[in-house]
Structures are given as structure tokens and as C-alpha cells.
Design a protein that fits this description.
Shape: globular
Radius of gyration: 23 Å
Oligomer: single chain
Mean pLDDT: 83
Distance between the termini: 40 Å
Largest sheet: none
Number of helices: 9
Structural class: mainly alpha
Helix content: over 70%
Low-confidence stretches: 235-246
Strand content: under 5%
């Protein structure tokens, strides 16, 4: 009887794990495809076809609620998508994992941050979309698509969400922190629209790109880590070797 109970318990655990990973794979895959489709539509219709109906409606919506107080708040939040904040923040985060001797975490964070920045600059130079007229923040001369602040903030918050979801805290705390980080990244993106330094579609495309790049890069890094772990795994003793020792 105990052996039967153990088998039944093991079978339930196996089925539960299978369902969890199947659901996780389904959600991740659906999110990836939806983001890819949305990014492709925006890149084609808005950037290359110059369709601005959505951008104009969004600008009109935010202009209706614009006030000196809102603009000041958005100038505060937009700082968190700038290199002035992100460079020191990434340095501290990587230094923390290096100090904890978790070198792989530090390396992965560095790779995701640098590669997403490279993709962003490459797309800016490829699309050549000019900034909106009448910006509140003056002196920005580079191209508009995609939004570097929105993408960088999304990637940074995405990395923190990944860390939080793997932390030794309660499930409720994980979802609360993750939700707050998503809202924070969205707020940084909205700040770029309110300040008229990016089109709304620049920001939406940046969020889609952030999802695509986070899923792709973390999947690649996970596969590389698993491959390295297999290489580093100790080789079990063979029966022939044991016989020779005897």
C-alpha cells in the first residue's frame, strides 16, 4: 500500500508539473506571437505607410488632460528611462550579483541590457522616423521609432520581474511586485507621449519589442546555461572502472 500511495503521489506531481509548464508555454508563446504581430503592423502601417490616425487620437486624448502638474510628474517619471538612471542602476544590480558570486545572473543581465540597446539604435537608424512636432522637451535630435526610454524601462522592469518571480517570497508578493513594475514601465512610456517626444505608436511598438526581446534572449541564455551545466556535470563511474579498481 505505501508503494502504491507513493506512485500515485508521484503521478499527481508529474501531471501538475506538466500542466504548469504547458500553461506557461502557452501563455509565453501567445504573448510572443501577439507582440510580434503588433510590432509588424505598427512598423508597416505607421512607420512606412505614415498612417497617423491612432497617434493623432492618442495625442488629443492626453492633451485634454494635460496640466502643469501632469507635465511635471511626467518629467519626473521619464528620467527612469534615461541612461542617467539606468546605467548606475544596472551597475549596482550586476555588482550585487557579482558580490553574491552569482556571476551567471550578472552576465545575463548585462547581455540583455546591451543587446536590447543595440537593437533599439539599429531600428532607429533603419526606420528614420522623425520626432513629433511641438515637443515639450527640446533638443532631442535622434530618430523617434522605437522609443528608447520606453524600451529600456520595460527591459529593466522585465529583468526585475524575472528576479522577483524566482525569489524566495510568497506568491502574492511576487504578483504584487510584478504588477507594480509593469505599471511603472507603462508610466515611463506614457510620459514620452505626454511630453510629445515620441508618437504613441513608438511607445506601443517599444513595449512589443521589449516583450519579444526579453522572451527571446532569456530563452537563448537559458538554453546556453543548460548546455554548460551538462558539460560541467560529473561523469558517473562506469561498472568496468569499478571492476578494474577491485
Amino acid at each position: 500500500m505505501p508503494q502504491i500511495d507513493q506512485r500515485q503521489r508521484a503521478e499527481k506531481i508529474r501531471k501538475g508539473v506538466f500542466r504548469f509548464f504547458s500553461l506557461k508555454l502557452l501563455v509565453t508563446g501567445s504573448l510572443f506571437l501577439a507582440s510580434l504581430y503588433s510590432f509588424a503592423i505598427i512598423a508597416h502601417e505607421v512607420v512606412y505607410e505614415n498612417e497617423q490616425a491612432f497617434d493623432n487620437r492618442a495625442f488629443a486624448f492626453f492633451a485634454a488632460y494635460s496640466s502643469p502638474g501632469l507635465i511635471s510628474a511626467m518629467q519626473f517619471f521619464t528620467f527612469f528611462g534615461s541612461s542617467g538612471f539606468l546605467l548606475p542602476a544596472y551597475t549596482i544590480l550586476v555588482a550585487y550579483f557579482v558580490a553574491k558570486k552569482k556571476f551567471r545572473y550578472g552576465l545575463h543581465i548585462t547581455i540583455v541590457a546591451l543587446s536590447s540597446t543595440a537593437v533599439m539604435f539599429a531600428l532607429k537608424n533603419l526606420t528614420h522616423r522623425h520626432r513629433p512636432e511641438l515637443p515639450i522637451i527640446k533638443g532631442i535630435t535622434n530618430y523617434s521609432f522605437p522609443s528608447g526610454h520606453a524600451l529600456s524601462a520595460f527591459i529593466f522592469c522585465g529583468i526585475f520581474i524575472y528576479i522577483v518571480l524566482h525569489a524566495a517570497i510568497s506568491q502574492l508578493s511576487k504578483w504584487i511586485f510584478a504588477s507594480l513594475l509593469v505599471c511603472f514601465a507603462i508610466t515611463v512610456g506614457i510620459s514620452r507621449i505626454v511630453l510629445r517626444v515620441h508618437y504613441p505608436t513608438d511607445v506601443v511598438a517599444s513595449f512589443c519589442l521589449g516583450i519579444l526581446w526579453a522572451i527571446t534572449s532569456l530563452w537563448i541564455l537559458k538554453k546556453i546555461s543548460q548546455k554548460n551545466e551538462k558539460k560541467d556535470a560529473p561523469v558517473p563511474d562506469l561498472p568496468i572502472a569499478k571492476m578494474d579498481n577491485q
